[in-house]
Amino acid sequence: GVMVIVSNPVDVLTKIALEASGWERWRVIGSGTVLDTARFQYALSIDCDVDSRDVHGYILGEHGDSEFAAWSLTHVAGFRIEDYCKVCGKCPDGGIKNREEIVQGVRDSAYHIISYKGSTYFAISLALTRIAEAILRDEKSILSVSIALEGEYGISDVALSVPCVMGYRGVDRILASNLPPDEQSALEASAATLKEALDSIR
Predict the structure, then answer these.
(1) Could you tell me if 196 and 52 are in contact, meaning their C-beta atoms sit under 8 angstroms apart?
(2) Which of 5, 49, 51, 75 sits at 20 to 30 Å (Cα–Cα) from 43?
């Protein structure tokens, strides 16, 4: 079986559930930033004026305020985002002006929905359905689920979201790429935030 944690703080609870269960880390995952990533891809598709299915990118780290966009892994129809911006002709300066605005909008979207509707259960239900499909169908889809790291990206003893290949046993493998220094620092800062939260309740 595979245990999927959805309740917040999802990264902290994923690590605690792993320790309490004694299961392999591949089988204990959190919904992580799967929903944030979908919102990011949609927001970027609006900004680039393309179909969201042609946008590939990830929100990594904590599902929360320290999450960040891995722009180095962001592509539009096979083009790196920087290369796409140079040829698309939509932005006069050949680049996305409002990168931080897009990411902040992703971070704040849940708060806006809660203020209007009182909850965000529809969206997270869709994200959970996507994770379940990837597992049950052994799709080998790449999703930004939360998993306990053991040295990947130079990080250990916390669970956070990184690109993972999903299959019937949960996480089939972690795609630990070499992030540029600014994104690596952001991931480490996110890990430090989660480590502090874990230490406060242990």
Answers:
(1) no
(2) 5
Residue-wise pLDDT for 163-188, tens only, equals: 999 999 999 999 998 999 999 999 99
Helix axes 81-88, 34-48, angle to 10 degrees: 20
63 is catalytic: yes
Q: pTM of the prediction?
A: 0.91
Dist. CA 149–CA 152, nearest whole Å? 6
Domain architecture of the chain: domains with CATH: 3-201 (3.90.110.10)
Positive/negative CA dihedral, 72, 166, 2, 124: positive
72 and 183 in contact (C-beta within 8 Å)? yes
Which of these is catalytic: 56, 63, 75, 112? 63
